[in-house]
């Protein structure tokens, strides 16, 4: 057992970023201001997007994207059952109905051919989720959207730093297309809470920018500055979903370290893949295709319950006894009571997602992990699994 608990994730905020936060506090400009604007510019450049709009969370970013696309009551959006519930909740808040297509259990991503079977006259958007940081197969999804006049909202909460066919996730893809990123403390970079919506669609960007701050006209954040104007217009009833400068100060420092962070994530994953490759009781993630770069937000092997005398939850409990944290990403959302009761979904509807949901576990993965930490995880996994082989 380790002397201290190793969490499955922990943010790494450097002293320069902390000092930048202090600078914001000393300046008196705490909420949306010049640092947020600069963070947006730097983020757009990093992911090769025309527009980047900082928001209070990825969840709010998804919600605003759906509203900006005009999605509402009577509409349907198609997504995956293997995602965090925010993906569907954001659509439900608009009055739309989520429709689920099963996944490929090897990639953990939605299957485009199953999405196509669900398209009808009520379908308004496709929501691919880049699970764990592995890019979805976007070409057939984009083709499906183009043939049926559908919007595409990429849930890229896990995908910062991932590439699909030479292009970063978040890069420009045309009209009625956007990508939404998360800066939660467990993500590849953090602002504490926060998110970013990226798009090349000028109208969509304008509408999201206005929606995120009470419906006030673009640039209203500057009304308290020396060269700002106190006058603004309210274009429609909006929301309170803007990012603060004290968050953006953290985010700018984090963004500068993204490539370093992701390199370390890949190093840790490579060691897991080598050292655990011959361990009975564990099914490792499948190799990525040559035309993608995985961002490795989380490392999610399967606990092979068919050869063990414990289930996945038992494995997690045993690891915790060794002072090693793990996490569950995720229970398939159609198995939660609210969605089961309100949408009629039940076990058996999405067998691939259920197979994954019953076995998946997240092992510790964060850039500040030492090599000794990684060794402890490997030893812990081996000990628990060998102790419970049938």
UniProtKB/TrEMBL annotation:
Phylogenetic classification of the source organism: Bacteria, Thermotogati, Synergistota, Synergistia, Synergistales
Domain of life assignment: Bacteria
Keyword terms: Aminotransferase, Pyridoxal phosphate, Transferase
InterPro entries reported for this sequence: DegT/StrS_aminotransferase, PyrdxlP-dep_Trfase, PyrdxlP-dep_Trfase_major, PyrdxlP-dep_Trfase_small
Protein name: DegT/DnrJ/EryC1/StrS aminotransferase
GO BP terms in the entry: polysaccharide biosynthetic process
Modified residues (N6-(pyridoxal phosphate)lysine): 187
Molecular function GO labels: pyridoxal phosphate binding; transaminase activity
UniProt-annotated catalytic positions: 187
Pfam families in the record: DegT_DnrJ_EryC1 (PF01041)
Family of this protein: Belongs to the DegT/DnrJ/EryC1 family.
